[in-house]
Amino acid sequence: MKPRTWIPSVCGALLLGTGAPAGPVPDAPPTAPATPAEPLGSTFLGADLGTRFAVYAPRAIGVSVVGTFNQFNPSAHPLQPGGDGVWTATVAGAAPGDAYKYYSDDFDGQWVQDPWGKAFNDRDESLVVQDHYDWGDTGWKRPDKSELIIYEMHVKDFTRGDREAVSGANYAGVRDKIGYLTRLGVNCVELMPIQEWTGSEYRWGYNPACYFAPENSLSSHDGDGTARREVKEMIDALHRAGIAVVLDVVYNHTYWEAPAWRIDPAAYYDTSAPIPWGIKLDLTRPATHRMVRESLLYWLEEFHVDGFRFDFTPLIDSPALLALIADLRSAGYADRYFIFEEWDPRHNQAIQAFNVNAGGPAVSSWGTAYRETIWDLIRTGTSPDAETATGYFRSAGWTYPGEVITFAASHDDGTLTGHLDASPPAVKVATAHLLTALGIPMLWMGEEVLRHHLGNLVTSGESTDEANNVMDWDALRAAHAEVFDYFSALIRLRKAHPALRQGGTDSAGSGSFRRAADPGDGFIGYAYPDVPGDSDFVVLINFGADKRREITFPRTGTWHLMCNRGEARSDLPGLDTWEIREPTISIDMAATNAMIFMSARSNPQ
């Protein structure tokens, strides 16, 4: 989700009619743009055959391709019209590395980028490419969705100001910092948008221009296709380190600079309901559906990504998007991760029905219930929803824990240290809860070293101003190494134990998840008993003041205390060993503290 702020230059055009249309454009033509056997964009056919160009421009009267192969002469290579609105031509002299654009009087006399362009130079010209990369991730096995521990990051902010990111460029810098991620223990990174955006300055990436190409400004050479290779090298290295890659993708809007808008707004957009941060794409239109589907497939196949987080899905037609996900799953991608940023209860109900029909959590949803409950607990030490925080998804209609992405911080929200001014103990307690709760946990970059980030709640400028996002990684890592170690220990504990990875499906108290009978006043207690082959766990979370609670353990015997008073361990014997002789005992809980008990005895398989 991008900042909910107006962009004066483009918004003024929308309202005043100085650039973008003030009202809806005509309905899109009924025909779909070509067939899958006729690829759009530029396709290099070989040294003897040249390059085939194809662009969907159903309202144009004439289109030509201009490029370095014809000195950008609009009359040199006219494209031929097809019956489905697609214009094509094969240019014998066009080869990989050549720059090109499309020209038409019907494009307001502009030279326009290729909406299906796979690379761009520093003059915003599309480039002919030849796809080839020798992948080293042939043994890659992506984690089951239940095993994911997601780390959301901004590629540039993750790498600059860090001595480990020696390469300078940002895709390469992520590759340099893989050791940091493996020490932390996460097994999935969610990259804020890296599809080609408008302009080359610092961005969060929620201003997409072309969906098939990686953003140039994050590569070591802006404008010669290097970004494609460096993204593949980054993903290849992450896979070889055991880390999945999810792309944040923005298919709900573009800005007016996007070539799809310049070529034919009616074919791709719905302008009947203006939105504050661009122009709304319409997934029900055949051209948009094909562009979104083919770009997703391209990132899956050409770049080996493991899944997608779809930005602000309330702006995308829910049945159309879910039908597209069903199509991708049927096409062989059922093991990929599909995550919606979803705030609309009706859309969530559609996701729930889709998942029930799929027999599991095919689509996962961001949401507010978990996040806002944790915020209340940090701010005040109490919350009306504290009792259900750990397994709230059931009361909201969810069937499977994996349907819900649990997080307390994100790029929009900022870190807990930032927008809540949370103390280090409070950050640790919230993290202990997150990493032992039902659902799929997500961490926001820098929380593990107490980064101060305000997200959309900045006090000056825009949230996407570069100055509001810079961080000194070296200083933070040195100052807060013990916080990093705490995060790492809890991550490794969760990864090692199936009981902690969505260990139950019924938050009402049956099965392998049980909530404490008498929570309240900032206290949350829950247990994971009876998971075959694993230990039992008892988790006590206290966001409030000192208190004593009667706790019933699933069994008597030896238990290891793995987390207490701001320390955590993933290996035995933990911090301490307790002998539980009676099922119910009184435990004194310190203020703002998390205690995690693990039984010494494992359950039979």
Structural class: alpha+beta
Number of domains: 3
Question: What oligomeric state is this?
Answer: single chain
Number of strands: 28
CATH topology grouping of the largest domain: TIM Barrel
Strand order of the largest sheet: 17-16-15-11-10-9-19-18
CATH class of the largest domain reads Alpha Beta
Look at the structure and name the CATH superfamily of the largest domain.
Glycosidases
Would you give an account of this structure?
By secondary structure, the protein is of the alpha+beta class. It folds into three domains: 36-127, Immunoglobulins (Immunoglobulin-like), CATH 2.60.40; 148-500, Glycosidases (TIM Barrel); 514-602, Golgi alpha-mannosidase II (Immunoglobulin-like, Sandwich), CATH 2.60.40. The chain is built from 15 helices and 28 strands. The strands form six sheets. An eight-stranded parallel β-sheet has the order 17-16-15-11-10-9-19-18. A hairpin with a 2-residue loop joins β24 and β25 (567-568). The chain starts with 7 loop residues before the first helix and ends with a strand. Residues 2-26 have low confidence and may be disordered.
